[in-house]
Amino acid sequence: MMLPPWLESLLSTTFFTGCSIHGASARSECNMYCLDCAGTGAFCIYCRETMHPHHNVIQ
């Protein structure tokens, strides 16, 4: 069975850490993952707005 190219990266990603860019902001835990940029790791809601605005993101 073929696996999606992003699956292994998703499964090895650490979630719910503080965002290194937006750590001082409320709700800055890294709980999102971009399927289009697989391999870039987890990110927060603020990173989504600035770096992944029109990408396929899961939470």
Helix content: 10-25%
Task: Give the helices and strands as they follow along the chain.
Answer: HEHE
Q: Please report the total strand number as a whole number.
A: 2
- What would you call the structural class? alpha+beta
Our count of helices gives 2
Strand order of the largest sheet: 1-2
Gap between N and C termini: 25 Å
Poorly predicted runs of 5 or more residues: none
Q: How many domain units?
A: 1
* Coarse morphology: globular
Mean pLDDT across residues? 94
Would you write up a description of this structure?
The protein is α+β, with helices and mostly antiparallel strands. The protein has one domain. The chain is 20% helix and 7% strand. It contains 2 helices and 2 strands. It has helices at 7-11, 45-51, and strands at residues 33-34, 57-58. A two-stranded antiparallel sheet has the order 1-2. The longest helix has 7 residues, at 45-51. The N and C termini lie far apart (25 Å). 10% of the residues are buried. The mean pLDDT is 94.
